[in-house]
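ok so for the tutorial part 2 we go from a plain amino acid sequence to predicted structure tokens. step 1 is just haveing the sequence, like this:
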Amino acid sequence: MNKKLRFPKKSLAVAVATSSLILGQSSIALAQDSVVLEEVIVTATARSQSTQDIPFNISAVQGSDIADQMIVDNADLMRTIPGVSLIDRGHKNSGIVNSMIIRGINVDSGAGGDIGYNTAGPVSTYVDNTPMFANFLLKDLQRVEVLRGPQGTLYGSGALGGTVRYIMNKPNTEQLEGSIDASYSQTEGSDGDNVSFDGVLNVPLSDRVAFRIAAGTLQNDGVIDYNNLYQTVDNIPVVKDDDGNCLSVSDPSLSLSEINNNGSCYTSKKDADDVDIWYARASLRFEASDELAIQLNYQVQEDEVGARRSVTNGIDGWGNEYGDFEGGATYLEPSERDAELLSLDVDWDLGFATLTSNTSFYDTEADGWRDNSSLWTSGGRDWFDRWYTGNPRPAAFVEAGVDEDAFVQEFRLVSNTSQGDSFDWVAGVYYMDQDRTTTNFSHLYGLREWGDACAADDNCRGEPFWWSGSVHDMDSTLVRDETFEDLAVYGELTYHINDTLRVTGGLRWFDNELTNSTAMNAFFAQGVPVPFEDYPDQNEDDVLVKLNVSWDVSDQMMLYATYSEGFRRGGTNSIPDEGTFAELNPESAAQYTKDTVSNYEIGIKGGTDRLRYTADVYYVDWQDPQLNTTTAWWGFFMAQNGESAATQGVELELEALLTENLNMTVGYSYTDAELTDDLIQPQSSEVIAEDGQRLPGTAENVVTLGFSHVAEFSSGMSLNTRLNGYYQSDTTNHIENGVVQDDFDSFSLWNITASLLMDNWRVSLYGKNIFDEDGITGNFPSAYFSNDNGVNESYFGNNQRDYISTPRTLGLSVGYNF
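step 2 — the prediction. this is what the tokens look like for a chain of 818 residues:
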């Protein structure tokens, strides 16, 4: 049953009060001088337009503002944009899982992020014209555009909550230019340093050809101390012999009794979650004529992260309480990622319209490791004790990876408008061919060596489950190969009824196919070939609709109303239907279908030379929401559909020049997001979340605030000072009522930057998260992933973890432009 549109009185009061302030803008006492707000031009609608002329809610952040605020990653950026939520799991996970949420469209847990999800993210992301999630460092950007609400007609699959576009700087044929920047900072909780170096060079090769390259590195020491790490040899925990020596489990001096009964030695690592990133982007632009431009781009980034940025609460197996920046895993949990993008963009002005061709190839490979030992010991599971009784050194460690590559081709024709034209239009054809491999290898390190010794020792106090000489220490494997093909034809047509009233209609027809071939195995079948099983193909086609009406009330104000649709492609699950690990009712969860949203929105935007504002109310009806979860019996990864959910809210954004030198931005969003029907586990028919359950990861209230002040001196120097604040109210961790559920308190984050500009030089002092807030947005709760019984099955670690924001960071940056 669909939910009726409703808003709390308090939120309506805020909206009405703000609208009254906006409508009475002429009475605002702003200093009267010649300085005006800079017009923001975007290309979200496939043509260059001011944000104030686009009849839907869009925000744009200029690349220069991003650089001036010392913002280098997506988490910091999204917290400057009202209406956008983000589950911040740090650098380890940020290159693997898209965790952005717009308008509350999300049902996935804040606990995840270590594996490649079955489903695509609910917010589509573009690097220039390529639809890919890469999370590149935010360097040498022209701007970032954030489109709120479903954008299905122009942007296709995944644009449920909205779309984020990262627009890179283009080569400039007019002048030689470049920059060099260096930064040094220290972060609370770390004994080390953070450094970064960046360089940009733009070289005109002729009047019509230019080359641009940007490259750099970011190296941050970590803040999290791992205190209970196993000492290992080849990942296998060492053995502490009867004399207290730490020896490899294969050491011939160890007796069977020592291997069977003695525990391991432990060590620690400070500042384990270090980050090492390097990137490069090169572009060659050829302006063949005034009508034809061709640009070739190549972008690459490599990330290496030493561990996760999370803290553990509670105690370890020795009864010691974890400190402020300590993690309880028994293995380091690093990650690494390589991302490459090659694209060719052609723009040809045909007179009546501009033809654009975008051809892209991208490849991303990501691998992450996680300590799963607590999964076997906590929550009353006691799996080590049940299946491997007596194992003195329990260790579960998982390797997970994602390898995705794609070819994308899009042709788009955009009408060239002139004064008096009655129609504007956009028409395009889109094609994607994507291959994706997801892997998950789970090891019980040291199990084979202990099992062999135990089988040879009549006095062994335990017995491994299903033991034989062919057994090794990999207890389960998953290799899932998917191919996805998407063909779409789309168009939008705007009819100018008169000079002030416009109507836009849009359609997108799509036809996609996903195939899934998966190899799975469990419980140590070493040497036995694992055949790939082909699962049923998923074929889907449909038509998406958009309708928009906008009216210029005056030269300074526009009203608009929008109905828009979005979708996210479906897929198939890899669920065994026979053998030892046959699942309960596997056919009921073999596939998950596309989910769709219908968005209803009314808004107002406008401004003067000194003031700019946007306000809207919306309601989103979400049908068949996709949830990444696990199977009912054996816990294999899968995705399922729910019945329905709905989100509704208010979004407000204001920018004002308070004085000639002082700029202020304010943003507010209220989001009410919840299920509108029970969420049923398809295999067991169990209700796992009830109608009315709040959707995870989204705060009801989010406020952003920014001040920028410029002080100019007679010497020609100037001081640019920026203060930015972000506040979000409490959030919840999971949609299901179970051990993964948890609630997180509200928090605020404040950043400040002071930059002294002189000639071509810039010297900046900056502070991020200056009040050192934890800012928790996701976790693995104690009830699900800990060491809840102290010493449990000889396991002394604790994998409970809270994902925290980057602690307080203070730094110095120096730059030179030429």
